[in-house]
Amino acid sequence: MKLKTNFGMVVSGHKEATKAGIKILKNGGNAMDAAIATAATLAVAIPNMNGLGGDSIALWYDSKKNKITVINGSGKSPLKASKKYFNSRGLKKIPRRGALSISVPGVVHAWETALKKYGKKNLKTILENAINLAENGIVIDQYLKNFFEGKVYRNLIKNNKNLTDIFGCRKNFKIGSKIKQKNLAKTLRTLSKEGSRSFYKGKISKIIVEDIRKQGSIITSQDFKNHSTLIQKPISTSYLNKKIFVAPPNSQGLALISLCNLFKFIKNDKDKTNISDYLKNKKIAFKFRDLYCVDPSISKINQKIINNTNKNYLKKISGDTSTLVVVDKQGNAVSWVQSLFEEFGSGVVSPRSGVILHNRLYLEKVSGIYDNYLKPGRRPFHTLCPSIVLNQNKLDLTIATPGDHGQPQTIFQILNYIYKNKFPLQKAIDLPRLRHNNGNQILAEKGFNKKFCIDKKNLSIKLYKKKNRIFGGVTAIKINSNKSLSRGADKRRNCY
User: Fold this and answer.
1) For residue 203, what pLDDT is reported?
2) Which of 125, 202, 355, 470 has the maximum number of C-beta atoms within 10 A of its C-beta?
3) Which ranges of 219-338 would DSSP assign to H, the alpha helix?
4) Does 54 map to a domain?
């Protein structure tokens, strides 16, 4: 949903969330205030994608200081989680769903931390719209109906009565009907009065831990008490005469930076890129990502390494999400991504709190050569990739997208459409995209070959005839040369 006011601009994945952010801007809040109000409402409005039981990573641009800061709201793995523990249970990898895939949720603490450091409003004011929406109910549109009637939800509810107690079963999902989340509303109301302390050290954490441990989780109250939000410096690179900023590890922003660095060296006819080049460079960038995108306390990557990275150096390297972007009238900006990782996360619900827990721990390895194999108390690898672009040291673009491992690929293509091909923001978002998951198969939307020279040697191309959600759901705001704002929202998701 995209709406513009004289107070700034908000773009998010749901109209109710966008309205919540704009209301805050109208009432004197800044970009961070609006971002958290939007994020909290998204947690209610799109419960299959994100929620209080998930994580977040965000970028904050302070217009007065001309400075970008990272708010890392990712949680840690449980203290009982180790290679030895999972191996002793006969597990060679962490289950994709269920209680063992849960790490500590960090988004609630990130909301409050960001507000206290960079906002103007209090948490009580910020959560009003989210509380009202949870109590009064979210309206089922076609987008939500598809998810609740989809394969993932049908499989999860076979052995999970807690999900059906909240959302119901197939007969409940009629367009125009409402889903009320009464227990979630109570949780949000407690947060509005007592702050995040109640979620991590108080009665809410006690309820969640008790509920999920009954379902097999190894998370303890101590794991919740140990949680903190990280305030970090971003990492960046120059690309197409712009400065691209992303979050450092444990975020996969490094993959976007690596793609930009690798493509600096490609020169070809007609200003086009061979798909074989894209496949090759994507594989290199993601191998680089897998080596360095680990817990920030052990990651060896830094800006000096990035600045010295070249093509030869890189070549030596042998879910789902909700997004929002905000720019206020002072020129402050936020790119915020929060997620349960995959659709409905772990599938595990704390019924008394109404909180669905994410499955972020699933990505951690219990074997293999990478440093990000599971250890107690580490922050897992994160697919979240919020981004901000500066042009001549001034804010030019704030952008984010869902799409798990496809996030840096989607943003990279949008950057090229805008800054290389000179397309307006919305057209850049509407244009066809490609994606690579694994092997030598490229996924591409119809029409993409008009922009790329297709070389089918040693690769296959799966063509989608229609725009598809696997290629992302971009939300973006661009600052124009006359200081007006352009907004872009992706019809591949609910961002219209």
Assistant:
1) 96
2) 355
3) 221-225, 253-263, 275-292, 303-307, 311-315
4) yes
